[in-house]
Amino acid sequence: MNFKKLFLTAVTLTLLSQCLLGQSVVKLNVAHAQTEQKKDRIAVMIFAQEGIDERLRVSIEKDLRNMVVSAESSGKLKGRLYPIEPFFDVGQLSKANLRKTQRHFNEAQRAFEKNDFDEASDQLKRAKLFYMKSIPFIYNGNEELLQSIYYLNYLVHRELKDTKAMRDLYCNYISLARNITGSVGPIEQFDVLAELCEESPISGTAELKVTSKVDGAHVYINNEPVGLVDQANPYISPFMPAGVHLVEVRKLGYARWGKLVTLENGKSKVMKAKLKRAKNRAKDFLPLANLQVTGEQAFSDTYLSDFFYERTYRFKVNTILVGYLAKTSVPDQVQLTLLSFKDEMLGEKLSFQISQEQRHSYFPALAQFWESVFEFKEEPQEMRATQSRWMPTFFKVE
Amino acid sequence: MFNHLELITTLRLRGLTVFKLILILHLGGSVSLLSNLLITDAYAQTNSEEDVFDDKRGDVSINQETLDKAETAFFKGLSAYRAKKYKEAAKRFKTAHKLVPYRDLLFNIARAYEELKQNEKAVKYYKQYLSTKPIDETQVIHRMRQLGVSRFEPAPKGNKGTDDLQLKTEPIPKGSETQIDWLSWSVLGGGIALVSTSAYFGLSALDSAESARNATKNAVYSNAKSEAESQALVADVSMALGLAVTAGGLYLLFTQPSSQTSMNTGVYRSHIKSKSRAHLESNPKQKNAFNQESLKQQTLKLNYLPIINEKLQGFAIMGQF
After folding, report:
1. Rounded CA gap, B92 and B273, in Å?
2. Same-domain check for residues A193 and A97
């Protein structure tokens, strides 16, 4: 019986220690969560009934997003636009490809150390290939790897004494550093860069054209939203700085599409974006699109509130701004219903009659909606996506 | 926890079925374990999401004016470097680095000193550059070797260079490393708890078997016998579970990678620490130094396993009676 008591105490002790461990983990997590004070995340989505001009939908979405971006940059709004498009694609693929990129890059470094430059060049080619594969799914922060690939490639070609390739690669490396940071830079840099890369095609400007077979997609260049694309109207940027750019096309409900493009001086490049329906998160996305907000069959506010509460949790956002475009009996007019979910509360639903033909007829609606949600005025016509500089260009010398 | 045990004992007296007992055991013993698992899992998940979507522009505390000044200084330095005025270049790069502690500038300063043939200063800045854990660690080590550095240790923390990474990426959360350890330890603890409960039941089965043997009435005998059988079954099942969980815990404990090995690590960081790196530096011919080191560690781990298993076998033998 003594044994029995001994084991009983042993069991209780182990269970007690388990309990204590669990509690301390909880405490630690809570402490960590308290120290992190982050800005609110704001998601913007506009949906349209079938038969409504897709361009209208996407331009409302763009303007509302621009309002958020500019209100944030002016400091009036404590929150930032949060991209929820990545939730609807196959993000897991990216990690495998990025890991492979890293592995080949490491192999290349080892080969470089052993003065086996052909092998290093080969490994770098593979690393770049895998990076290309993972591009639609990479996020901010992985550009450093790409820059390093270019820089090491430059070093390798210097050792191989391939002068032309060496110069081009170094200029590519610089252009990447400049394009990713979005730096315009001071006047002093132009002479230096001209001296460095004048003879290479990586100087001056080039034209970029993006076409798509899907209507109403957002074009992102170097992680900045720059414009819209649809079947009839391609996105054209006539004076892009030459060099390496990351071009992406995103649309809610579609898997992202992206490619790395090297623009050469004085040339034009056309890119065809091939967007495919996202599969894995369609169950999250489709109910949002098919929600009845106004009219006789509208869902109750309680249901909507619960529904959006769940979405905020899933998309990891604090605020959702949603708009629904529906047809009316008048052929030219459409009904725009805007609603917000903020601070775990469903905001006021606002409905407007807007003209489908008249451009920017929805501006007063957006202004009124904005004021009702954020309690300060913001004019949509003054809003433009401000590509503010945030980091200067730095790169390694030759 | 005490309540659970009381519950178990009272229920046992009332002659509940074995399956229910197992269920309750699981609930009692594994609630905290499960909560640990769930919390850490969920926490890790949210963290990874944070990393994925974090905006680089987030909270850079340096204002635009400083950034412009730093960029100007950098390009002046670059033009000086191009014109082979390396002393001026080093000065300009230093100014830029003072304004914005960006790690590529450290590399540039080192390069300028290398061109000036001031190898000591060059090595000093290369070390600072290495302390920021750059992606091209190997190349820099290669360069330093070419400078004739036979032995070096990475620069100590607290240098200006150490903050460079934070401009681009979020720092690694403080608790993450310990959490992983706790996870495996708690799994291990849960396994051991299960094993000891099985031992307890095994012993009580022995007790009831003895009472069955001493029983004079037939009814008492059959009751005690069935109780002993069910207790033995519980003991066996929980022993099997306990062993499995313990093995899982051990596996986690020995195979869990360090949380610091992120995507951006260099070649050597995941394999060797500063000491072994210094060792590698001292013997450049010995290329497989870090492999040997890791092999040693692996063999050490393997040596641990049988010892623990032997102990567990002891428990198992006791529980099977």
Report:
1. 34
2. yes
pLDDT digits 0-9 by tens, A88-142: 665 555 678 888 999 999 999 999 988 999 999 999 999 999 988 887 766 655 7
User: Average pLDDT for residues A295-303, to the nearest whole number?
Assistant: 86
- The verdict on residue B309 lying in a domain is yes
Same domain as A304, residue A377: yes
Please check whether residue B41 touches A, CB under 8 A.
no
Nearest residue to A165 (alpha-carbon basis) of A151, A154, A150, A179: A154
Å between A113 CA and nearest CA of chain B: 6
Place of tokens 């894995």: A280
Residues in Cβ contact with B72 at an 8 Å cutoff, skipping those fewer than 6 apart: A186, A188
Q: Where are the alpha helices (DSSP H) in B117-175?
A: 119-131, 137-146, 164-168
Nearest residue in chain B measured CA to CA from A223: B55
- Tell me the sheet residues that pair with A346: A341
B161 and B87 within one domain: yes
Is residue A293 domain-shared with residue A235, that is, in the same domain? no
Contacts across the A-B interface (CB distance below 8 Å): 187
Domain annotation covers residue B56: no
8 Å CB contact of A152 and B136: yes
Give residue B296's pLDDT band: very low, low, confident or very high (50, 70, 90): very low
Residue closest to B33 by CA, chosen among A205, A14, A72: A14
**For chain A, how are helix, strand and coil distributed in percent, rounded to 5?**
45, 25, 30
Q: Could you tell me if B75 and B180 lie in one domain?
A: no
User: The domain containing residue A376 runs over which residues?
Assistant: 40-86+279-382
B191 is in which domain, residue-wise?
2-46+174-319
Residue A29 lies in a domain: no
Q: Is residue B52 part of a domain?
A: no
First to last CA, chain B: 26
Q: Per residue in A243-288, pLDDT tens?
A: 889 898 988 888 878 888 999 888 999 999 988 887 766 677 778 8
The DSSP letter of residue A387 is: -
Q: 3-class SS at A352?
A: strand
Compute the nearest-CA separation of A305 from chain B (Å): 24
CA A90, CA A230: separation in Å to the nearest integer? Answer: 23
Tell me, yes or no, if B126 comes closer than 8 A to chain A by beta carbon. no
Contact A271, A261 (CB under 8 A): yes
Q: What is the pLDDT of residue B78?
A: 92
CA–CA separation, A74 and A64 (whole Å) = 15
**Boundary of a domain, candidates A277, A298, A328:** A277
Q: Are residues A293 and A365 in the same domain?
A: yes
CATH number for the domain including A343? Answer: 3.40.50.10070
Closest CA to A339 of A365, A376, A361, A316: A365
Whose CA is closest to B168, among B57, B30, B261, B254?
B57
- Domain count of the fold of chain A: 3
C-alpha B190/C-alpha B126 separation (Å) is 48
